[in-house]
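Methods — Computational structure assignment.
A single polypeptide chain was analysed. Its primary sequence is given first, followed by the predicted tertiary structure written as structure tokens.
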Amino acid sequence: ASVEAESSPDPTADGSGAGGSHPRRPTAGLLGLGVLIGIAALTRNEAIWIGLAWLISVWLVPGLAARRRVAMVAVPAVVALLIFIPWAIRDWREFGNPLPGQALVNALSITGSDVFAWKDQPTLARYLAIGPARLLELRVEGIAHNLFSVLVLPGIPTGAIGLLALPWLARLRAARPTFLVGAITFLATSLLFPVSTTWGTFLHAAGPVHVLLIVGALLALDALLDRVGRFRGWTKPVAWLGAGLTLSGCVLFSAAILPGYARSAETIRDRYVALAQQLPSSGIAIAGSGPVISDFPIWLADTLDVPAVALPAEPPTNVLDLARTFGSTLLVTSGGPDGVWPAILDAGGPGTECFQEVPLAPPSDPILAAAIRGTRAFRVVCQ
């Protein structure tokens, strides 16, 4: 609908009121689109797929003058760049690169923990060394994860119904831009970032697709009930029933899935609350230990309001270099998703002597005691 509005002829474009042939001046819609893409780019790299979907949508409009097509793409692109450029300059000053370098590295990941790599950064040679069969397998795993774990299973039954309705929904012109954004995001994350996407790359960008699935389920159920009504000769309208079933499916998701996420979040919060309570008895003030190295840095930093650094799945000598670089004197690990730490310290070897375990007494509160179970803390004593 937006594409049609922007591409429709303007009878006052040439100032004569007679419907001249000159392209219109940039409209508020194009400027607004550029603002939205620019703001989105400050938070997610996937904003580029919104721009790509808009470009495809514009080029699919029949009978549109070439100058108008270019203007409709160029105006939001320029506005978005004007918003994003200051952020790119900031990235250049802070990290030495204005481009999303982490995204490029993520494309070469062969394990999820590569996102935390410090000295053993993913490389193209390492990536290709795993062979074509494994590279293909990674993409199958990425597609399966994004399709089932992100789209279908969390939203049963709405997600499954909406997925079946997607081919029909894609033919609706009003839904085409959203469909394009979702399809491009799904394919890009599954095929270009097959490992990173199992750690949340698509999950964190799947909002448009979930909206599309809900709308698809709503329309599919409505159409199904309309056919059933005609077949059975219903005389009373049941237009509310399709929406009611869709709403019921969404409520089912909220009631069955969200409490599980909440309980998991509470357990992680309790883990670090217990840690902060027990460390002082060992003579450690977590707030004065510099950035804490942790295999769950986001949760630790958010719960305790202290700086945190990600623990890479690398040898102790590499982690020691990380600690020296950031001035860290404390390492906290709960086993992590890769299972490398703290087992690597228990095995011994170069650098392990620099990590001195801190005894953690179990809290008296049984909930906190259960939450901190398996969590270990180490002083970094070689600086």
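Note: The radius of gyration is 26 Å.
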